[in-house]
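User: Hi! Is it possible to get a structure for several chains at once, not just one? Here's what I have:
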Amino acid sequence: MTDKDFNNCVDAYSDGVYRFIIKNIGHEADAQDIVQTAFEKLWVNRTKVETDKSKSYLFTVAYHQMIDHIRKDKRNNTTDNFDEVKISIHQEGDTELKQILLKAINELNPTQRSLVLLKDYEGYSYQEIGEIMDLSESKVKVYLHRARLLLKEKLVHLEKMRA
Amino acid sequence: MKINTTNYEECFLLYIDNELSDEQKVAVENFMEENPVYKKEFTLIQQSVLAPENILFEDKVFLYRLEELEASLPISIKQGLYREEAKLMEGFFNRKLIRSIAAVAALFLLIIGYNLIPTIPVKQNNLKGLSNNERVVKNDAQSYLSNTANSGHKQVEHMEDYKKKQNANVIIQDNDSSTHRLNTLISISTEKNNYAQQAGIIQSIATSSNHFVTNDNAIKTVPIINNTVAIATVNEKIVSSEVSVLAESKEEFENINTDNPDRIIYIANMEIDGDKLRGFTRRIGAFIKRNKTEKEK
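Assistant: Yes, the chains can be modeled jointly so their relative placement is included. Here is the combined structure:
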């Protein structure tokens, strides 16, 4: 990977990696740090990583960095209320349904949330998600389907509340 | 895969996750048309899919590698940058400038060192009356001794027998030895760097000169036969008086008069470790040489 290829990767994937991380942890500065670490590792290992695999490599590194961050955050017991942070990053034009959906996603566990985000935002296949999250394809399928059904139940609950 | 009422949910989920083939997708769509009851279920599952959001990472500039940008710069711009840097360094490391800075720094250190010299204690009595200068003290002592020797010669002239002449020679020899002793003390005093010791020795010399004066009187009054013994006792007194003067000199002090141009002033006693400075001049030289090379390029 040349310097130019790396800079192209920055242009192409930094937004996606950042979106994936900030939707998970909801903390802007920590998300920026994780993204920067991921690209730093890509640069260090640029001779080993093929250019067409750079996106999955970035998401893999970022995901594991994020898991470490969440564990460290729980250990230090200094967690902010991520739900509030995540709600604050919602855009003004969001519909009520979307806001409810985002709130429901925030209530998922980190693994389920990551599965949904990788699938919906990045369009990864089960196999690719499994490689990123170090899960088997069948586990990805099961976990993701459970997450979908949970979201659906929340939407059904919302419909009942409206009725 | 055949869709039925038991596996429709999984099929719907696979459908929205885009994990089905085109044929399977058509099969799912046909199932919903045939079973409108499940269409609402499909819609609810489909609503759980997140729509893309436009969230940007604004700090991309910190991620870019600028080597590519630097490599793309024209050579003329690079040379211009190097040339400007070389000029700047040349002006900064000008030899004349370095010499002038070193001279000013040395002068500054000299002034600071002079002001930091502690006040030198000197005993007050007798020193003012005699002189503040070692050379003056030395000259006084030597002149006194020469006078004493002359007085000895005068006494020899009045001697009538050979024995008395011999005693007179002893006196002269004793005076010569006293002169040598004083010269030794003065030479020691000039070699010492410690002002306190110098002051003490000068003081002892001055006091011993006073004792020589009394000694002269003693020589005149004491019979000539006993002159040797008298001078010997006086010399012992001189030694004891030096010790007492040195002891007394610690009690009263006064600043040295530094206006005398002949006075030797010791500013500092500094030892430089050459091993710690090894390589410093070489690095400075290499640095200046490198700038010169860049300028030539």
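The radius of gyration of chain B is 51 Å. The CA atoms of residues 191 and 198 of chain B lie 9 Å apart.

User: Great, thank you!
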